[in-house]
């Protein structure tokens, strides 16, 4: 009997020992796995930059600091800091109105290839968005959001841009808010009236979304400011004084400047809300989608050569880039177009792509001088289709009727002297033939 008791006690001890070893082993494996997961996430966040793309609506070079065009400038310390700590692209071309510029960034294609050539044109659902491309190529490494102005679905206020593979959309589906204080905010295809000043509301939504992300993020923040109507922002956001309600016939410039200053104020709020380590791991891209509105265009631009025009005042707009990986500062004179943001942002996100569709990555310029492209192209279709092409020195205009204009930007940067009114030199003839050949290649 005594031997049986001893045997039972030994079996019991062995049983408990096995249980303890098993529990310890499982517990150790679990802790090890959790550490591995956390380490992988940390490495991913450290090595993959966040991307903040800020699009201002209707800001030409005459309406922002850093350019000689225009005499009246807004007070924009936050936008100035982006420019001063990084690169300012002096030869950046967008399209002369907002929808096609947005479509070129979203698809990396010229309007000729998407059909989006003027404000209000609709982007086909078959087009692959930049956000979808990034996540297909990186195994969903990024969280993506588009906050603010969409304007690629005509007047359809119930449209949801998330169908293009964007994780989150909240904003203004149509082209402009009828009022900065009474407008339709759309989420999940449902619109609700909003009375918060648009620039602040979009910033609030962006801050809230970014704060919830636990992996690298790509925030496309498209403000409608300083697009008309000329509504005074809350007084604490600008330096233009106590502005009365705008009425037709009043000087619109203070209201336009106030909207830009309010935009800058909100950009400052957004950047301040991002933790320092996260902000230091972020590439910041700021651009205007087209030239300044005709009512407030400044010399050397005219109302007829600003927004809506294929002249420099309509297409040559601000682009500033700073932040993670941007080690150079100052002005960059390379020829860049809005389509190029597709490949550039994709490469920032870790995709090995130097060229796709009509887009060429200019990410190499962040650290060194490099050749990117030999020409720029833009177009419009406001009752009559027209297009322009430039090699940096010469610029050729052409429309669907075959009418042409030809300028030498080197000594006529604001296109006052059409060379076709006189006899072309051999160099001018050769330049014109070269641009015409390139046009045929693009539009074949």
Automatic annotation (TrEMBL):
InterPro entries per record: Alkaline_phosphatase_core_sf, Sulfatase, Sulfatase_CS, Sulfatase_N
Sulfatase N-terminal domain boundaries: 49-351
Any Pfam family hit: Sulfatase
Transmembrane segments: none
GO molecular function, one term: arylsulfatase activity
Origin: domain of life: Bacteria
Alphabetized UniProt keyword annotations: Calcium, Hydrolase, Metal-binding
Any coiled-coil regions, as ranges: none
Family, as annotated: Belongs to the sulfatase family.
Protein name in UniProt: Arylsulfatase A-like enzyme
The species this protein was found in: Maribacter vaceletii
Taxonomic classification: Bacteria, Pseudomonadati, Bacteroidota, Flavobacteriia, Flavobacteriales
């Amino acid at each position: 009997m005594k031997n049986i008791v001893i045997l039972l006690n030994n079996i019991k001890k062995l049983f408990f020992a096995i249980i303890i070893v098993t529990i310890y082993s499982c517990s150790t494996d679990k802790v090890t796995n959790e550490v591995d997961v956390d380490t992988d996430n940390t490495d991913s966040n450290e090595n993959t930059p966040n991307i903040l793309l800020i699009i201002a609506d209707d800001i030409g070079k005459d309406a922002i600091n850093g350019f000689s065009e225009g005499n009246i400038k807004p007070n924009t310390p936050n936008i100035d800091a982006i420019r001063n700590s990084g690169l300012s692209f002096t030869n950046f071309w967008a399209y002369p109105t907002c929808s096609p510029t947005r479509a070129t960034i979203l698809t990396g294609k010229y309007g000729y290839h998407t059909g989006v050539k003027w404000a209000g044109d609709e982007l086909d659902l078959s087009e692959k968005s930049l956000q979808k491309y990034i996540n297909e190529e990186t195994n969903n490494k990024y969280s993506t959001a588009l906050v603010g102005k969409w304007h690629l679905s005509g007047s359809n206020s119930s449209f949801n841009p998330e169908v293009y593979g964007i994780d989150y959309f909240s904003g203004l589906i149509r082209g402009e808010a009828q009022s900065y204080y009474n407008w339709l905010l759309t989420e999940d295809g449902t619109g609700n009236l909003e009375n918060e000043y648009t620039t602040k509301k979009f910033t609030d939504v962006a801050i809230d979304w970014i704060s919830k992300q636990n992996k690298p993020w790509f925030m496309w923040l498209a403000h409608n400011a300083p697009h008309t109507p000329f509504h005074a922002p809350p007084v604490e956001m600008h330096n233009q004084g106590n502005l009365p309600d705008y009425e037709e016939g009043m000087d619109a410039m203070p209201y336009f400047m106030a909207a830009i200053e309010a935009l800058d104020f909100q950009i400052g709020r957004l950047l301040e809300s991002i933790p320092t380590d996260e902000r230091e791991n972020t590439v910041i891209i700021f651009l205007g989608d087209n030239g300044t509105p005709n009512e407030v265009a400044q010399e050397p631009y005219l109302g007829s050569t600003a927004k809506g025009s294929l002249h420099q005042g309509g297409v040559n707009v601000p682009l500033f880039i700073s932040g993670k990986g941007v080690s150079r500062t100052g002005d960059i004179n390379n020829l860049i177009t809005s389509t190029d943001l597709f490949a550039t942002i994709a490469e920032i996100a870790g995709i090995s792509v130097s060229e796709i569709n009509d887009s060429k990555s200019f990410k190499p310029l962040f650290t060194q001088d490099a050749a990117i492209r030999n020409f720029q192209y833009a177009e419009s279709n406001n009752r009559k289709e027209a297009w322009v092409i430039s090699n940096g020195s010469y610029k050729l205009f052409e429309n669907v009727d075959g009418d042409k204009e030809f300028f030498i930007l080197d000594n006529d940067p604001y296109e006052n002297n059409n060379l076709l009114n006189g006899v072309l030199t051999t160099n001018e003839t050769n330049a014109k033939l070269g641009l015409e050949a390139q046009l045929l290649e693009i539009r074949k």
